[in-house]
């Protein structure tokens, strides 16, 4: 399954500066199960937050992860940067298995892989100055850059479009957009190769969203960063990501390059998701696919295809057999027994 | 989404007409004085903002000044003794009448003995009061600081460790809270003293003071520990802590650099509210005869002694009572103001 993903067709570089070659990050069959129990001796259950997700990211590439809330995208992101330990599966970074990296290996890894958080109001320590916040990754890793920590921090602040003179200010003195820039500067402090951006703009104003997204784009071009961009806003993802993975209930249902996903998706869920994006050019609700019911609980996911309970194409085989991720006729990799074909209306 | 602009947000400064730099989009605190504009680039920490708010609070000002005066008086009690030439334990029996009541009006108040004399043994009430305040404040402050230190340490450990350690600590806290304090103190203080001193030995006053401090600390760390544990649990899931972990920070850095600066405020507030509570409890101990021993002056024991004279000489009861009242009120008001200043969003 992984082989098909790595050699996925139609994902040749479309971005400006993308060195071809080995993927930077390979994720294979990653799972995260959270045990839940009611009371001290109550029944135990298992939330299958992420259940067998595989994908790969090349250097300098952006992969978008989209899906409804609760589909496991954030959990996946946290496992990538090792804030959560995976239940099973394998994460390979630059050819090394990092799934269970510890001590020095983990420390080295954390310098190459950073995370940007969703809430700019919670992600900055209110009692620290901006300078201290941005310098924190350097200090905890004992790095003394040439010219001193302060100079490096001011360079970083400038890089993200903040006034380096604001070194001594506190987070409460900044707006949401500026705070998110501080978060970006902190993530860049260690010169990472890949950044996991966990809904970096969801908490921001629409006008500020555009600024932050453009900043991330410029940084990506300048510093040749790879991104795993987690979002639920499909418009933002389309603007920012070269490849997109669609998740549903802990599973990857479709993954492919941006144009194909947005124009000719194979999975019914992707179509339903895209039809929910408001579009001023198409008035009315003609193309809207309305899904019935709620997302099933990850405590007890449906058998076979997890989307079958809400899918208008579901048949018996969907309940008995889990569809594998295979290359579909449109060029994406999707998990569906009855893939859609042709462009979106 | 269209690309709305290609330039990132302006580097957020421009020069204003007055030759200073002005930051754009900076939420300067509402209470910033206008004169602060010139040095706009020096950010104010949340602590500095709290200090600004506290300084504008008139209740805080009055109670802080009251406390400062009382604390200075208590600390300078040996100097006052020298200046007045009256020792706190000096008996002026010649100024008592045949019924051992002070001569003169209003409990024997006059130019020499400003607050009068104690009936019975004829000691100067002012000197007793000044030294008694010193004893009370020493016990209250020492107990509050020890209790907070224990509470912070145990609370941080419980909040961060979770699991069985947290459960065990919580169990101990519940157990400690379930003990009736006064009854337990009544039991523990004589037992411990019996352990160290025989029946015939005189128990040194300092030993009793230390014992009282230890008993207070032993029973009061639980509140701080609960509070700190809750704060740590709330903060440890915050994203700035995760960011530190993602950058490779160790537990020590997370606990003491990231978390502790954020829980100073509630710790300070409980500390300031613990002090008056200890002052009153310490006074109450005198009533069950486990307070500070004679001849060390003590406010609580003064009230206890004065009760038998309350009908004939109410002034003797008034002075220590008033002193405790002012001390406790001022501490409580200051503690409340401190909480308002540190956490302006909290409502009373």
Number of domains of chain B: 1
CATH H-level homologous superfamily name of chain A? P-loop containing nucleotide triphosphate hydrolases
User: Which fold name is given in CATH as the topology of chain A?
Assistant: Rossmann fold
Per DSSP, the total helix count of chain A is 11
Uncertain runs of chain A are 1-19
Structure in words:
Chain A: It comes from Asanoa iriomotensis. Chain A: Belongs to the ABC transporter superfamily. Chain A: Residues 25-274 form the ABC transporter domain. Chain A: This is Dipeptide/oligopeptide/nickel ABC transporter ATP-binding protein. Chain A: Residues 1-21 are annotated as: Disordered. The complex is a heterodimer of chains A (345) and B (348). Chain A is of the alpha/beta class. Chain A is built from eleven helices and twelve strands. Chain A has one domain: P-loop containing nucleotide triphosphate hydrolases (Rossmann fold, 3-Layer(aba) Sandwich). Chain A has helices at residues 2-6, 73-80, 103-112, 130-140, 149-159, 176-188, 206-223, 234-240, 258-263, 268-275, 316-320, and strands at 23-37, 44-58, 62-66, 88-93, 96-97, 113-116, 194-198, 226-230, 243-248, 251-257, 326-327, 333-334. In chain A, the strands form two sheets. Chain A has an eight-stranded mixed sheet, with helices on both faces. A four-stranded antiparallel sheet of chain A has the order 2-1-4-5. In chain A, α4 (130-140) packs parallel to α6 (176-188), α5 (149-159) crosses α6 (176-188) and α6 (176-188) packs parallel to α7. The two termini of chain A are 31 Å apart. With 348 residues, chain B is an all-alpha fold. Chain B has eleven helices and two strands. Chain B has helices at 46-56, 58-75, 77-84, 125-161, 163-178, 181-196, 205-236, 239-246, 251-287, 299-306, 314-342; strands spanning 13-15, 21-23. The radius of gyration of chain B is 27 Å and the shape is globular. At the A-B interface, α3, α4, α6, α7 and α8 of A face α8 and α9 of B.
